[in-house]
Amino acid sequence: MLAYCALSRMLHRAVLAALLWAPVLLWPPAPGAQPLLNEATVVLDPGHGGTDPGAIGISGVKEKDLELDVAGRVRRRLQASNIRTRLTRSGDQTVSLRDRSTRARSWGAGLFVSIHANSAANAAARGAESYILPAHGFASTSGSASRWSTCDGNAFDAANMLLAFHTHKGMVLNTGADDRGIRRARFQVLREANCPAVLVECGFLSNRAEERRLRESAYREKLAEGITQGILTMIGQTTRY
Ligand SMILES: [Zn+2]
């Protein structure tokens, strides 16, 4: 009898709790409260991988390893903000440039962010720079574009610039890296993007001081935070700047 009463009290409390919380748990969000991009998948593209190490730093560090790490940090931050995120490679795999675009398409990418590190013959060269597709009919920043025809990515000329502005600003402000600006080049992943796309160059592995910073976990965290802030600003979830 005693056991029956205790069970009855528990059931009673459970029903009461369900009735109290149901309106909160089931209440639908206000229509139109979230920006459209919030529904989209952000595709992060760590450059190179597998048989392609990318740039090699003065100490021997490989671009492919650094950028996989940065992309993973961005991914974790975006996921913490409930943003659907995919990586074109999640380990040390060889992935062709075509496959990177194909995967992004198949995942319904809403934004595409390719993450790289730089290298130059001039050991003094340093700083962060970002690339987007040249607008339709325009040459690349270097002036050496061999094809000025319209690419898939030109459907997003305005949004490409906006995405680059936010991610580049986040990267530079958060790290204090020299600002080498937003440049334009017809890189394959930018040409074939079917959503706004940017390629960020986090710094120069050929510069001794910058390579040392890129090898520091705390610095890569700053880079990731800056890139994430830019993406979130683009999506419309934050007005931090
Ligand atoms: Zn690269």
Structure keywords:
7 helices; Aminopeptidase; disordered N terminus; alpha/beta; binds zinc ion; 6-stranded mixed beta sheet; globular; 241 residues; 6 strands
Q: Could you give the topology of this structure?
A:
Layout: H1 2-26, E1 41-46, H2 63-80, E2 85-87, H3 97-106, E3 109-118, E4 128-132, H4 157-175, E5 179-184, H5 188-191, E6 197-204, H6 208-214, H7 217-235
Parallel strand pairs: 1-2, 1-3, 3-6, 4-5
Antiparallel strand pairs: 4-6
Helix pairs in contact: 2-7, 4-7
Bound molecules: zinc ion (ZN).
The site of zinc ion has 5 residues, from loops.
Provide an overview of this structure:
The protein is built from 7 helices and 6 strands, in the order H-E-H-E-H-E-E-H-E-H-E-H-H. It is an alpha/beta fold and 241 residues long. The protein has one domain: Zn-dependent exopeptidases (Aminopeptidase), CATH 3.40.630.40. It has a 6-stranded mixed β-sheet with strand order 2-1-3-6-4-5, sandwiched between helices. Helix 2 crosses helix 7 and helix 4 runs antiparallel to helix 7. It binds zinc ion. The site of zinc ion (ZN) has 5 residues, from loops.
Gist of the model:
With 241 residues, this protein is α/β, with parallel strands linked by helices. The chain is 42% helix and 16% strand.
| Helical/strand content category | alpha/beta
Strand content: 15-25%
Hetero groups in this structure are:
zinc ion
Describe the global form. globular
Per CATH, the superfamily is: Zn-dependent exopeptidases
Order of helices and strands: HEHEHEEHEHEHH
Radius of gyration: 23 Å
Number of strands: 6
Which regions have little confidence, pLDDT < 50, spanning 5+ residues? 1-5, 15-35
What order do the strands of the largest sheet run in, or round the barrel if closed? Answer: 2-1-3-6-4-5
